Amino acid sequence: MRKQVSFHLRRKNCAVYRQIRNSSKYYRMKECKFDLLALALGSLFLVNNVLATNPVIMDQFTADPTARVFEGQVYLYPSHDIPVPAGSGARSNWFCMEDYHAFSSSNLVDWTDHGVICNQTNVPWLTRRNFDMWAPDCVFKDGTYYFYFPVGGRIGVATSEKPYGPWKVLEQPVMGVRGIDPCVLIDDDGSAYLFTAAGGISVSKLKANMIETETRPQRIANLPRPGLIEGPFAFKRNGFYYLTYPHAVTDATGHQGAERLEYSISTNVFGPYTWTGVITDTNASGCWTEHHSIIQYQGQWYLFYHDDQLSPSFDKNRSVRIDDLHFNDDGTIQKVIPTLRGVGIVDAKGKIQIDRYSDISEEGVTVSFLNPTNTFEGWKISLNGTKAWVRFDKVDFGQGGLKSVSARAVSATGGMVQIRVDGANGPLLAAVKVTKGPNWTVVKSKVSKVPAGIHDLIVTQVGSKPVDLDWISFQ
Q1: Residue 10 reports pLDDT greater than 70
Q2: N or C: which end of the chain has fewer CB atoms below 10 A?
Q3: Tens digit of pLDDT for each residue in 302-322?
Q4: What are phi and psi of 14, to 5 degrees?
Q5: Domain boundaries, the chain
Q6: Where are the beta strands (DSSP E) in 8-111?
């Protein structure tokens, strides 16, 4: 086990070294000899530190998230939005994607970036570089992980013995099919079916080798029209096939709006499928696309999707989010209402990002970027009204016994907040005084009556003097 972990660490950190040195040399594996540098850079791979909030990846743009459960963990395979490189010839003000990363988590809180799976520069059969590496998928069959990715109108494949790599890009794309946004469903009998989009959604059966089609692509004809339908994600539950997809609904005047997530159900993988409902409405932030995936992990179903919250002025730079998903007794899906809080339980000893709140008072609370020029730094929450409050759910205090609380805060006038658990009238843990000044500081206060277990936090402004908060943490 020690040898495997050591190799994994060196492999991942060599990827970072190569990217730092020269991204065009990323695949020169000889640079993996730098073990000492790998150890020094080890901390770079933990993308988040006890966040469990939306978006889940905060150091790069991620989109089109396919989540899968492998080896007891959740692996996330998104596409990767990047700025248009100067002189690349890529279309400006449009989607620009040149590679894929793999991420993993055992708790949906801490995410590890395992580096680049493949780049458009190392796909042997690709004759052009058009920055169109769109929504991918990954499945496991007969001891091999198969990573399917669309580029150049074809479906490429990379294989690995582990869900995080290293990956080998195959010499040819999937034979017998064209399209984008691949999704592979492995049925109960081991048969594999490839869903693709291109002017609609098609499905074909894969051969046992997973890289050729056994049947010609069959267009699923009875999906809702008019309007663009793409990004299929198919899964099976209780004997029924669920085909979920983004649908850009077209109104009576012919205007095509933003995508919403819909689904259809069938008893046959090829259909016919019956339109059943809407999973999410169009994105309130104005993000036009809404690609996704759905998994069950440790007894709970989750919806992975994206929006443009880290890039509100340009919806071609997107970020992955996660929220709970629930089924009704009849098998239909309850509509998902996107949240800032996301999923997962936050450790009280971590940095609790209360700007990703569960609920706030009707007045006196605003959220804004800490640094509008670098949105990856995240947000702050401003309390600016008498008894303005914010609630943050599911904080784990462990066995209790914590002695103090720290808060990163700023107040131009000086101010104070109270921290309680389990409601506005719940036990008072601390009163945190923020001294007057223009700069962010970390202030510390003693706490009392700290409970054990999981509780909701309530932070309330005391008086009328405004206070801005970044995070709070218990020690």
Answers
A1: no
A2: N
A3: 999 999 999 999 999 999 999
A4: -65, -35
A5: 46-325, 346-474
A6: 63-70, 73-81, 97-105
Measure Cα distances from 349 to 13, 397, 471, 474 in Å: 27, 8, 11, 5
> In Å, how far from its chain's centre is CA 203?
26
Model pLDDT for residues 89-121, shown as the tens digit of each residue = 888 889 999 999 999 999 999 999 999 999 999
Name the residue type at position 76. Answer: L
Q: Report the alpha-carbon distance of residue 286 to residue 250 in Å, rounded.
A: 16
C-beta neighbour count of 457 within 10 angstroms: 25
CATH superfamily of 46-325: Glycosyl hydrolase domain; family 43 (2.115.10.20)
Lookup: tokens for 355: 């700007």
Q: From residue 137, how far is each of 158, 295, 433 by CA, in Å?
A: 11, 13, 49
Q: Whole-angstrom Cα distance, residue 308 to residue 294?
A: 20
d(CA 451, CA 161): 45
What CATH superfamily classification does 346-474 receive? Galactose-binding domain-like (2.60.120.260)
Structure tokens at 59: 């150091």
Token pair 């490189």 is at which residue? 85
pTM of the complete model: 0.89
